[in-house]
Amino acid sequence: MNKLEKFEVDCLVIGGGVSGIAIGRELSSKFDNIFLIEKNYQIAQETSSRNSEVIHAGMYYDQGSLKSKLCLRGKELLYHYLKERKIEFNRCGKYILSATDEESETLNSIYENGLICGVDDLTYDNSLKSKYPFLEYKESIFSPSTGIFDSHSFIHSLSRDFQSQGGNIFLGNETININQSNEGFEVLVEDKNNDTQFVVIANVLVNSAGLNAVHIANLINEDNVYQEEYVKGEYYIYQGKEKLEHLIYPTPTENSLGLHATIDLGEGIRFGPSAYVVEEIDYSLSIEHKLQFLKAVQSYWPGIEEEDLTPGYSGIRPKLKGVSDFVVDSGTVNNNQYVNVLGYASPGLTSSLALAIEVSNRIELDLS
Ligand SMILES: Cc1cc2nc3c(=O)[nH]c(=O)nc-3n(C[C@H](O)[C@H](O)[C@H](O)COP(=O)(O)OP(=O)(O)OC[C@H]3O[C@@H](n4cnc5c(N)ncnc54)[C@H](O)[C@@H]3O)c2cc1C
Questions:
Q1: Is the CB of 213 under 6 A from ligand 1?
Q2: What is the mean pLDDT of residues 207-219?
Q3: What is the 198 CA–ligand 1 centroid distance (Å)?
Q4: Closest residue by CA, ligand 1 atom 13
Q5: Averaged pLDDT of the chain
Q6: Mean pLDDT lowest for which of 140-149, 269-278, 358-367?
Q7: Distance in Å, CA 36 to ligand 1 centroid
């Protein structure tokens, strides 16, 4: 058998979704020799292109949690970046509705939690009925700093930044295995473009492999204690004649922020995402969940009929069993440093620029 070619790099990022690209961009000012590998033939083909494209305000997450910290900082950085780069967004605001007295209590705790976390622009607003008479609810709060944006242009812009700062992206390159040596992490890569394999020796290894991140973390360090849980969410597109200018969210459920009505930048309306645990990564829509989906929408928009909804798309949340927060797990093996980004589900798009700074700070800290 031919001996595998070996390349030495300062830093290798695994995964070309929004987290890997934002992290690579941030680290490219720190490392001269930085590479990012992505198993697909294009960047951002998995969770980063299968979501609601909402800029979250940050009122749902526990005070002091990583989600709270990164969402709040990420939101500001993201709006600033979008404005500076002239990438389309709409700070349209969102309403969260309660349907029962119990949900009104939950709504109030979201309002209070927002205040504690520093989201101080929330208001109770019952004027919704005059704007949208087809909606039914008990109470509603309004979040003016929630918005929507063109996430594809955003990710591609980050990728251009990364490459113009000297970063290299290899598409169709999949991490197969990782060994530890004194020289660095020895990452076995399969180049699917020409069916060859090679080894990258990296001093710093960042694992931002999304749905595959727990598996990669196990290759980096056997002591990894995290277990993944995939929570699928489906979307349906609204075909009726009503219009919305705001996002409409029900009260959140355990696994999701609720099956909401989201407007897109072209003023279309889509509903979703639903939330159910799956074992495999399969993005096809399951028609047997459609009636349940419809019922959830009808709880706040009773006039919706089954024929108003056509199948859209799905995404899968890369959650961790028993852990609701993001996890940025960093450490060293043989003096070489790794960072695992785990459980990076919603609000991961919103938080991406702040996540990149967090990862960069960890590397500084552990190398000093
Ligand atoms: C249904 C849904 C709705 C959401 N809505 C929102 C929202 O409105 N607002 C918000 O802020 N966030 C939202 N999110 C969260 C957000 O989409 C994610 O947090 C974010 O996209 C995760 O990005 P990532 O780069 O970590 O993962 P990914 O986008 O999955 O990227 C990981 C990449 O790693 C690659 N990879 C995996 N294994 C390997 C390997 N062995 N070798 C090389 N490459 C590999 C994959 O191909 C993939 O491209 C939503 C998520 C879901 C599922």
A1: no
A2: 97
A3: 26
A4: 346
A5: 95
A6: 358-367
A7: 15
Residues 139 and 244 in one domain: yes
User: Residue 181: its pLDDT value, please?
Assistant: 92
Report if pTM > 0.90.
Answer: yes
How many angstroms separate the alpha carbon of residue 290 from the centre of ligand 1? 24
On whether the CB atoms of residues 262 and 233 are closer than 8 A, the answer is no
Whether 340 lines ligand 1, by a CB cut-off of 6 Å, is no
Q: Is 16 in the pocket of ligand 1 (CB under 6 A)?
A: yes
Residue type, 73: R
* The predicted structure's pLDDT at residue 131: 93
pLDDT more than 70, % of the chain: 98
Q: Within a domain: residue 279?
A: yes
**pLDDT, average across residues 58-63:** 97
Long-range pairs for 103-108 at CB < 8 Å and ≥24 separation? 103/138, 103/250, 103/251, 104/138, 104/139, 106/251, 106/252, 107/139, 107/140, 107/141, 107/251
Residues 29 and 106 in one domain: no
End-to-end CA distance of the chain: 41
- What's the pLDDT tens digit per position in 289-320? 899 999 999 999 999 999 999 999 999 999 99
Ligand 1 proximity of 151 Cβ (cutoff 6 Å): no
Distance CA 43, CA 25 (A): 14
Q: Which of 302, 320, 338 is the last residue of a domain?
A: 320
Find the domain containing 173 and state its range.
Answer: 5-49+153-226+325-367
Domain contains 140? yes
Between the CA of 26 and the centroid of ligand 1 the distance, in Å, is 18
**Residue 366 scores a pLDDT above 80:** no
**Which residue puts its alpha carbon closest to atom 2 of ligand 1?**
51
User: Do 174 and 314 belong to one domain?
Assistant: no
Q: Which of 3, 6, 354, 2 is nearest to 198 (CA)?
A: 6
How close is the Cα of 199 to the center of ligand 1, in Å?
25
Partners of 207 in the β-ladder: 14, 340
